[in-house]
Amino acid sequence: xxxxxxxxxxxxxxxxxxxxxxxxxxxxxxxxxxxxxxxxxxxxxxxxxxxxxxxxxxxxxxxxxxxxxxxxxxxxxxxxxxxxxxxxxxxxxxxxxxxxxxxxxxxxxxxxxxxxxxxxxxxxxxxxxxxxxxxxxxxxxxxxxxxxxxxxxxxxxxxxxxxxxxxxxxxxxxxxxxxxxxxxxxxxxxxxxxxxxxxxxxxxxxxxxxxxxxxxxxxxxxxxxxxxxxxxxxxxxxxxxxxxxxxxxxxxx
Amino acid sequence: xxxxxxxxxxxxxxxxxxxxxxxxxxxxxxxxxxxxxxxxxxxxxxxxxxxxxxxxxxxxxxxxxxxxxxxxxxxxxxxxxxxxxxxxxxxxxxxxxxxxxxxxxxxxxxxxxxxxxxxxxxxxxxxxxxxxxxxxxxxxxxxxxxxxxxxxxxxxxxxxxxxxxxxxxxxxxxxxxxxxxxxxxxxxxxxxxxxxxxxxxxxxxxxxxxxxxxxxxxxxxxxxxxxxxxxxxxxxxxxxxxxxxxxxxxxxxxxxxxxxxxxxxxxxxxxxxxxxxxxxxxxxxxxxxxxxxxxxxxxxxxxxxxxxxxxxxxxxxxxxxxxxxxxxxxxxxxxxxxxxxxxxxxxxxxxxxxxxxxxxxxxxxxxxxxxxxxxxxxxxxxxxxxxxxxxxxxxxxxxxxxxxxxxxxxxxxxxxxxxxxxxxxxxxxxxxx
Lengths: 253, 433
Ligand code: SF4
Prior knowledge:
By secondary structure, chain A is of the alpha/beta class.
């Protein structure tokens, strides 16, 4: 058994793939350094190298569109069990076929990755939909989320574009990092200590701006008022707004 | 990381701290709730001057109410006072209900504060008619103008135009709004005159025409110089109430089709009539709103817009109403078995689109993938095609077993409606074909 161990970044994965071709050894598995390795397994540690990663990207660019390339990154963000294997197989088939396999949905890996891509995109969409900022006493608009996939990188433009004149923080409590915008730039930040709102999804009242409660109430009232009782359909509501987001929703308390 | 003392650049006088605002919002949201257009799509305005908001790309639903409807915009009325007496409307003059009016600044503040919290994509403002059409339209345009010019707000704005409003005011509204709409309300002029005697098609079509003109003129101007002001870049939409009048689906869809021929018309919405004025016997006494019919109309609308169906193929004199038990695409296929089965490995995209169980996305997947080799039914299933339906209408690598040629249309209809009978009537807005 041979495992390639990499630093659990996209660049690291591409470096691993470069090394595979370069050394002409095919590992049984490529996995992040944070995962346990079974006993009696030979390992090779990949050292992330932007140049090697670029070489792989250049190779791929000759066979697939930029969009498809970006999709691979999005699939990577899914962080699902052994996504590395599917990505590697896809890349390998692409590099080894004369004109790429980008739209061959009869191929299992293409189809599988296209489904993963959709799932990750949907999750990113849901974060954009269901983030609820609470205005804190120090004027920062704060929102907490725990998305299934690592989608904050896909949402940052969305928030930055919309909320350019307010300072905001969107925090992924599952992965313990957030994006913080300070009116000039967006940065990756993390809380050193677990604060309570990371569990509850909500700031405590005493840390909120004095107008915040009023606007939350107005929002709740608004949603109640526009509901058409004759058309009540809770099943449909849950289908569009899955329960796992409710704890972050102002209107679902 | 600490939540430090960064002060945001905006500071507001809190009109919303006025306790009345709670009652006003409830009343004026309730008054607006039957307007269905929730979409905030079809426009791009990036946040260039670092103000608040952007309307780039597609509309986002930020919440869903208990009726399963998408909440994308703050949908409210400026006022629920009205001098008109339309039979289908809860705000009609003759109803004895509490009435109230927002000030322009109250609406602006609600919009901005909701927007900042990521509750909404923007504002959808309509109004009852006070004094006259122009007086009302003028205040609505003011809201949009102040949001854009004073508050540097770039989020979405949809203004409903008031029937009978002047060209000047519609021109003003179009400068600041993304979308303007003018509701046809009833699918025929007789019905309109009968149920809403204060209105006629003139008062509705004229503003519609002004919007279209403004839209086209601004497009021309833009060709000449890029800085030319935009006019309602997301075009216009309209809405018809379904089931309040005897008009059949043939009439409704032909009118919708005619609307879509207009250059700026983006969406026609269908709204199942909810009896709000049960005392008014010009209107039918319904026990439940016609939700299934409404859903079928939306499906038919999709067939016209995305599946290249002609309206006459969906409804005509011989088939004036949509089949409530099966969707209009399946209904068409069963009426026209001579076109099937379709070979997915060779047929045109157009024909694949017509297969029940295959949507636009899967049709594209099929056409893209078959270049690499023949597709089998297993491939199709994995691509998300609803084989339960599609199998009667296609052939692929394997031999077909029972297509519509062997199993007769009537039998397929039976087979495909059986489980549906058990399902509850409330299907909501699902477009799964
Ligand atoms: S004009 Fe008619 S539909 Fe509009 S608010 Fe007045 S009564 Fe209602």
